[in-house]
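Quiz preparation item.
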């Protein structure tokens, strides 16, 4: 909600009680939380009074946008981890779902990709990627980058987003939003 007394600023939440101490923390899971101290209680004085990604909130920010919501690799839909993308297709998700092991990065290393249709990277909300560029150019850019573990391509806009980590892939309704996961050839 935009704060009208501070143009350009945002009001995240208001304290539930007259509190002196609040702290804003970027948590290890990627969520932004406000912890507020209530000096009138003996136990549990620090309470989480705001979460940016919150399944129980009326805000439109889904937990699927959390980088590690589905571990090191998983497809998220409606705040739930629903699939593990593998070369054979989308399999049932489990905590053991992980990206394929890649060969040591050296010039000319043989890599390939498997395709995941109807997904976006969690970073797509912050960057649409580069482009327009052809799919083959996007692929080559990732293949030549040791830090790239996959790329995401929007066919309608020809935008390319290189991914340094995979994490949570957000399921979208558009089959023209495609992910390509790097693997050994």
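Solution:
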């Amino acid at each position: 909600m935009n704060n009208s007394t501070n143009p350009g600023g945002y009001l995240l939440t208001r304290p539930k009680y007259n509190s002196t101490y609040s702290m804003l923390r970027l948590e290890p899971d990627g969520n932004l939380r406000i912890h507020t101290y209530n000096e009138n209680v003996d136990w549990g004085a620090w309470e989480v009074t705001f979460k940016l990604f919150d399944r129980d909130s009326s805000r439109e920010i889904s937990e699927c946008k959390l980088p590690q919501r589905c571990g090191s690799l998983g497809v998220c839909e409606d705040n739930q981890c629903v699939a593990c993308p593998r070369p054979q297709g989308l399999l049932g998700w489990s905590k053991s779902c992980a990206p394929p092991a890649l060969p040591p990065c050296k010039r000319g290393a043989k890599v390939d990709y498997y395709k995941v249709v109807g997904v976006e990277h969690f970073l797509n909300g912050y960057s649409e990627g580069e482009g327009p560029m052809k799919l083959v150019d996007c692929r080559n850019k990732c293949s030549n980058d040791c830090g790239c573990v996959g790329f995401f391509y929007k066919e309608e806009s020809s935008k390319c987003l290189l991914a340094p980590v995979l994490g949570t892939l957000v399921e979208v309704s558009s089959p023209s939003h495609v992910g390509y996961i790097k693997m050994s050839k």
